[in-house]
């Protein structure tokens, strides 16, 4: 047990550099830290071949050219082997693949990839169990899903199904001890694999549907998948105690199998330039402009603050379905001249803005973690968070208030922007907080739980 | 004979209310009256009243053989007058018995000794007047806020005509004979160092697991005192908060019985007698010079000023408050001067400490805010508010005078 490295099959969805939220970086950070401690294989819907990965096998399904595989197989074994060299274990997973089909299951024409045709195998059972009314995927469509640069989008359910089916087949031939699935999109695959190979399943919860729709009583397909995944899982790793509490409260999962693993952040290489303390102060809000992130509380706080001080501007970085509403609200409250909506920005631009930011403000209504607060803290920026956030658990030296308490938020902003002593102490102390929470520690914790699970599972 | 000198500090600050930035320039009231009343009454019920009862009984029983010393801040006396008048009567009758010595200190329990010499003197005089009016008593020995001490403070106190001063007995400044003797400052003021080991055995470690029984027992403590006496101790100075009895250590811990038993055993003992600071400075000869160039105090592990000036917030708060001094004094307005003075109480700065570990826990125990940041922000908002009040008042006064002249 001690010498042997555990083999872990990790199922992810977002992965750098294609990101829509915190899931990608968190997944990457954890996988990287884990890669020295366990034998890790990671399966994700797509990878950018130019993005170098480190010590773990990263298999992007978009790199598995399904069409080509199917066709080439028909033509010559040699051609297939060439492809197999590119993607290491395809050859080994030959059997579960649909191009090894019984005669009646053979593609109608040679050009039709039959990979995901429901008739061909019965993986879709997972969906039947979950009672999900999802249209079956047209064959040509599957490849497209994996190549889509939009991680979610309206066809998300179909993408998830495609992912589930392919991944399950890939997994059948892999050697692993534990399945580790990140967020609901990979839960069906996790469940399906667990059913087949009888290996323990760990699900990692980066966010919950109840957070995203800002309704603790949300009951929809996604909620059902999340609940099912957590019920099926042997252990659940939420990203915070805050999320654990929500899982217990709103999903009815037993608390003694839930172990919070806090996210972390890789140390920042470049040192931010010192800010000039004179002139206009900058408060930054970054993230999807959705109800979950509490943009209306941002506007309300701004209005309160601007009644007492003038030399401050609010930057809103990000887009989302509440963007227009927030803009209107800002106009209505008479703060639109002090609030700049920057839209979606790339990393470089964000870093540049962070260099000139005085306070990072996150009034989220329900934030499972909130990785962007750690990013801001790396830029020596004091952060103001809602108490309803997981990141506040690792930043004891961040200022916190309940998301609805805009008067308190404004009071904190006023103090941060006017009282130098607070600013100095907080920026220094928050660096200490950052140093205390590392991916290394998170990975150690994860491995500890893996081992405990392994010990109990095969008794 | 070894002298035993017990001194108890009685102090409660005027705590301030949650003062938000939008109240700056709008709200003249800073105090959280309900909380102050509630805490004073709670502490009176748990500590002051039962302790006074016990001490009164001991005084009655042993007459002049039993003597102890108190120091009251002016702000706690104000609160006692307001919220617990019976408690004041109890203290008055104890002082009238003659077995009690009272010490001098700054009225507002402030850090004025390090921030403003003029303010320091003003508060000492204000405190003297208060003690005289309530107890018909004039203190002769001085103790500074939280035993803050260095050579300069000793010199200043000497100039003010005091016979002696109390301070923390720090090994590196004491002679090899230790704290159990009378010392003298370089400028000739008698110095009574605190035996912090033994004082904290009662004040902090009374219920700690290090003792044979569940708590420290009177018999055990007598043995410790005997050991000190054998080593030639002239006086063992035990200084602590009065709240040690019943508040920091609850009644159920047996702290009252411990104290009562200890006093009985000491009275019966042939080697010990009770002495007060004034008696000590008059009867003993200083054995050495107590030369302290840096600031020391009885607080926290460091026993320096870091409990009140240990971070940027505290430094800024202290600076901002005392920057207002000339303007506030210039108003000659009692109410504004009073508001400003109450903010000088050291507790406000103490709440802003960001220390961790054991000391951090002690700071948090006393803090009426959820974090040091809240304590600081509230304080800074109030100082900003006071500044506006003072400026407004001065402008008004000037305009009034001008108008008066024009007529």
From TrEMBL, chain A:
Enzyme Commission number: 2.4.1.21
EC top class, as a word: transferase
Catalytic reaction equation(s): [(1->4)-alpha-D-glucosyl](n) + ADP-alpha-D-glucose = [(1->4)-alpha-D-glucosyl](n+1) + ADP + H(+)
Chain ranges of the Glycosyltransferase subfamily 4-like N-terminal domain: 170-267
Gene3D superfamilies, per the entry: Glycogen Phosphorylase B (3.40.50.2000)
Any one of the GO BP annotations: lipopolysaccharide biosynthetic process
Key word Metal-binding present: no
UniProt-recorded Gene Ontology molecular function terms: alpha-1,4-glucan glucosyltransferase (ADP-glucose donor) activity
Pfam families the record matches: Glyco_transf_4, Glyco_transf_5, Glycos_transf_1
Entry annotated with the keyword Electron transport: no
UniProt keywords, alphabetically: Glycosyltransferase, Transferase
Top-rank taxon, per record: Bacteria
Domain Starch synthase catalytic: 7-58
Residue ranges of domain Glycosyl transferase family in the record: 272-399
InterPro entries noted in UniProt: Glyco_trans_1, Glyco_trans_4-like_N, Starch_synth_cat_dom
Protein name in UniProt: starch synthase
Originating species: Rapidithrix thailandica
UniProtKB/TrEMBL annotation, chain B:
Keywords: Carbohydrate metabolism, Hydrolase
Pfam families, sorted: Glyco_hydro_57
GO annotation terms (biological process): carbohydrate metabolic process
PANTHER family: ALPHA-AMYLASE-RELATED, ALPHA-AMYLASE-RELATED-RELATED
Keyword Hydrolase carried by entry: yes
Source species: Rapidithrix thailandica
Entry protein name: Glycoside hydrolase family 57 protein
Stated family: Belongs to the glycosyl hydrolase 57 family.
GO MF term list: hydrolase activity
Keyword Lyase recorded: no
Domain Glycoside hydrolase family 57 N-terminal span(s) in chain numbering: 6-290
InterPro entries: GH57_Enzymes, Glyco_hydro/deAcase_b/a-brl, Glyco_hydro_57_N
Gene3D superfamilies in the record: 3.20.110.20
